[in-house]
């Protein structure tokens, strides 16, 4: 295995530090494969949701429930966070650790804002409308699909926060770079999933009914 | 720099709990898989005892349901899958000339999650009743309305944890085969077993997440009161069938493709010939995998999908016979004109071919939707899938175990005992399942716990039971053979069959920790055979002798799996009243679940915070070890 002891001096970092070692390349490839599996996971959840989206039993339907302005705001926030994670990776390729950490920090804050909006939305339904997991088949499918995505966002926030800490402690090396790179891949993935959720769950529910 | 980091090397039990060496993980998979295979086999024998005569009361109807559910689930997920993974782990890195898999840590994690998932599932026997809704766990039978014990919860959560391990293993082998091949080994020079492992891993990657979701939905229905499959609240029970089979059908190809790979290796080695039609073999494997994803609804012909859907899934299913036929003829043509040696491994491989063809033929019969209305849920189906899974996969696994045993353990299995084992097993197998075709055709339903006398079922059921015990005897002979093999001194020749074709035969048996002192240079298909034909005794190295980097052993994968085990057990008993306020609080408020998850994620955090720099084996150490290893 190549270069197991990455102790480069600052500035001697290769252009694409995430792919400089075999371990790094393996990590990136393995993560692409993992995202393939995740796609099937969310695909199955979407299929379940599409099957059950009109099965509201005695509960409210999608168009009675959702409010588009807030969801649109959440969508905008998450899309911007994807952009900031691109800026982070560009900073990493320039070897600029401070800028990298800053952009990752912005990404985490935006992710947190998205998550707060989502928790607020869920709380609104559950506490005010009495609309929970057990209300109807539609509600079960809704909470499971959107909740799975929310759990992914939460995991991403914690993960990237820990990586920011590592960036300060260990520096930007050929060991930390692949970690940051795959966390950015992950972040883009949950962003893409959200685009589908916004379309299939909210737009379709509100507009088509 | 080589010894900049010293790593504590464990001994005894701790060595096995912390190992990240693919060869040791292979042995762990083999032991655990063998253990569960034994449990599943005993369950099968109990089922056959109950069915040996009409109106038998050896077990109750409830116990019978639990036995058939656990037999199917255990054999597929906990018996044969791990033995497949054992062979993959033992062989793949060696066949591609690598020192380890791409992710040794994940390799260990995959094993431990599988083991703890399997233990959790089997714990159901002593914690209030095993799952009883069949291995397919169809709703609403598996809902809380009809399945009152925690059995199905053990099924959903146990399989969830075990399935995670399989998914991790699949990703690991994909990455390993893509990036870790020795110089010169292009994709079209890979041994056939490596190819089938590659394709199988792809199927695992795209099939297992579907069952992950299915199991989550069923768990939520049962524990959180969700309504996915509850018709009264708008749910849809057929949705479960679709999700289950969209995973379940690829799963059966996940099982059989590695066996195809094993047979290809064994037949070619013992015919002293190159595998006939190598490229068509690769093509057929990929085609089977692709079609395998397109045919899930042929398990649901009688669900009422309508004639159009039934026709499409019928045709797609029949198409699979084409690439499978290609494979059968390629094996026959490999043997044609070869210098065939009928070692035990080759006996199993040769027995596999006609047996598997019989399973394939009944498969095409079942693929015809109108006919399936007659066969559905009868013993004809039971006979069919045992022909492909036992007559196909299990014979393939025995072939593989006899073939690679010397490579894994440095000792050969006795050939005489092996042949007795083969004949006992295959005669027992055909006795058990051949008659079941006819039992099904004359109307015996599967999953019935007993039957009335004088329907023409009695004799054939008795024959079937006797056959099952004969198979049991075959397995016991294998175990005796294993025990006897460990009384030999370790260290047979590297190329123990003398006709080894692939890279694993170019190194010592068992291989040293680092596999290859120097990464070999691959100059064609059947790399080692090519060198031997060129008059070389060993592979040409592709690199000078240098320090070898090794990953450190770690206990974290074990702890992560323990965490998942605790979390799963905690979640399952959320709604139970223990008659004890402390226990009710711990389970009802998700304290136990949270504790388990905290262990798992805490270990993940540790793994992220403390980078593993591994350790090095020095070149002079390498030369010492060569002497010690043998």
From TrEMBL, chain A:
It is a multi-pass membrane protein. Its main location: membrane. The chain crosses the membrane at residues 29-50, 70-89, 101-120, 140-164, 185-205. It holds the Pfam family COX3. Residues 29-206 form the Heme-copper oxidase subunit III family profile domain. It is found in: Cell membrane. Keywords: Cell membrane, Membrane, Transmembrane, Transmembrane helix. CDD domains: Ubiquinol_oxidase_III. Gene3D superfamilies: Cytochrome c oxidase, subunit III, four-helix bundle (1.20.120.80). Belongs to the cytochrome c oxidase subunit 3 family. This is Cytochrome (Ubi)quinol oxidase subunit III.
């Amino acid at each position: 295995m190549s270069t197991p002891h990455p102790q480069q001096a600052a500035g001697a970092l290769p252009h694409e530090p995430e792919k400089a070692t075999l371990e790094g390349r393996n990590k990136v490839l393995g993560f692409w494969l993992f995202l393939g599996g995740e796609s099937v996971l969310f695909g199955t959840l979407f299929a379940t949701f599409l099957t059950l989206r009109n099965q509201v039993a005695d509960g409210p339907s999608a168009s009675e429930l959702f409010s588009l302005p807030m969801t649109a705001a959440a969508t905008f926030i998450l899309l911007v966070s994807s952009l900031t994670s691109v800026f982070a990776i560009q900073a990493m390729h320039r070897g600029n650790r401070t800028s990298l950490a800053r952009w990752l920090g912005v990404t985490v804050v935006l992710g947190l804002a998205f998550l707060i909006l989502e928790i607020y939305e869920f709380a609104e339904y559950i506490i005010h409308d009495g609309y929970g997991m057990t209300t109807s088949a539609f509600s079960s499918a809704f909470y499971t699909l959107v909740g799975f995505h929310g759990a992914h966002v939460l995991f991403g926030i914690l993960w990237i926060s820990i990586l920011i800490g590592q960036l300060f402690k260990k520096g930007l090396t050929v060991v930390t770079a692949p970690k940051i790179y795959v966390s950015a891949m992950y972040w883009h993935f949950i962003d893409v999933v959200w685009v589908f959720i916004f379309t299939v769950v909210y737009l379709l529910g509100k507009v088509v009914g | 720099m080589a010894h900049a980091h010293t790593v504590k090397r464990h001994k005894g039990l701790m060595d096995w709990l912390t190992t990240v060496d693919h060869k040791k993980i292979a042995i762990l998979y083999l032991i655990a898989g063998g253990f569960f295979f034994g449990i599943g086999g005993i369950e099968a024998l109990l089922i056959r005892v109950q069915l040996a005569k009409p109106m038998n009361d050896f077990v109750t109807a409830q116990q019978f349901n639990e036995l058939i559910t656990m037999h199917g689930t255990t054999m597929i997920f906990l018996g044969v899958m791990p033995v497949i993974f054992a062979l993959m782990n033992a062989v793949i890195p060696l066949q591609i000339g690598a020192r380890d898999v791409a992710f040794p840590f994940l390799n260990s994690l995959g094993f431990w999650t599988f083991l703890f998932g399997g233990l959790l599932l089997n714990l159901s026997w002593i914690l209030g009743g095993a799952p009883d809704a069949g291995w397919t766990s169809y709703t609403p039978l598996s809902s809380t309305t009809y399945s009152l014990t925690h059995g199905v919860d053990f099924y959903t959560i146990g399989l969830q944890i075990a399935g995670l391990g399989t998914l991790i293993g699949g990703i690991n082998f994909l990455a390993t085969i893509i990036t870790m091949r020795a110089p010169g080994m292009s994709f079209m020079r890979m041994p056939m077993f490596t190819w089938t492992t590659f394709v199988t891993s792809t199927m695992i990657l795209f099939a297992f997440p579907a069952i992950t979701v299915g199991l989550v939905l069923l768990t939520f229905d049962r524990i959180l009161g969700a309504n996915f499959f509850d018709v009264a609240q708008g749910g849809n029970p057929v949705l479960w069938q679709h999700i289950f089979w969209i995973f379940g059908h690829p799963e059966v190809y996940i099982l059989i493709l590695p066996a195809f790979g094993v047979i290809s290796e064994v037949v070619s080695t013992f015919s002293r010939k190159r595998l006939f039609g190598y490229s068509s073999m690769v093509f057929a494997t990929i085609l089977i995998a692709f079609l395998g994803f397109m045919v899930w609804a042929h398990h649901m012909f009688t669900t009422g999908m309508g004639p159009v859907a039934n026709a499409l899934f019928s045709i797609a299913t029949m198409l699979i016979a084409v690439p499978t036929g290609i494979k059968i003829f390629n094996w026959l043509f490999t043997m044609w004109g070869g210098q065939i040696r009928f070692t035990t491994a080759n006996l199993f491989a040769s027995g596999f071919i006609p047996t598997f063809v019989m399973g394939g033929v009944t498969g095409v019969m079942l693929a015809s939707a109108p006919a399936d209305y007659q066969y559905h849920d009868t013993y004809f189906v039971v006979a069919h899938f045992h022909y492909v899974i036992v007559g196909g996969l299990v014979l393939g696994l025995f072939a593989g175990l006899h073939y690679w045993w010397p490579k894994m353990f440095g000792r050969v299995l006795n050939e005489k005992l092996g042949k007795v084992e083969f004949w006992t097993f295959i005669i027992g197998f055909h006795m058990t399942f051949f008659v079941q075709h006819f039992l099904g055709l004359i109307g015996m339903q599967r999953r019935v716990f007993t039957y009335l006398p004088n329907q023409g079922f009695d004799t054939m059921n008795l024959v079937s039971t006797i056959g099952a015990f004969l198979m049991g005897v075959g397995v016991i002979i294998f175990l005796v053979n294993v025990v006897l093999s460990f009384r030999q001194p370790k260290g047979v020749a590297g190329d123990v069959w003398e006709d080894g074709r692939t890279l694993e035969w170019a190194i010592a048996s068992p291989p040293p920790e680092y596999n290859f002192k120097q990464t070999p240079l691959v100059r064609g298909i059947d790399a080692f055979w090519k060198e031997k034909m060129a008059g070389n005794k060993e592979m040409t190295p592709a690199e000078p002798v240098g320090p070898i980097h090794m990953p450190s052993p770690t206990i974290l994968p074990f702890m992560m799996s323990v965490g998942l085990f605790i979390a799963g057990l905690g979640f399952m008993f959320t709604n139970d009243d223990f008659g004890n306020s402390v226990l009710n609080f711990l389970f009802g408020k998700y304290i136990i679940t949270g504790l388990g998850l905290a262990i798992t994620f805490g270990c993940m955090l540790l793994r992220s915070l403390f980078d593993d720099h591994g350790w090095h084996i020095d070149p002079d150490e390498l030369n010492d070890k060569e002497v010690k290893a043998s």
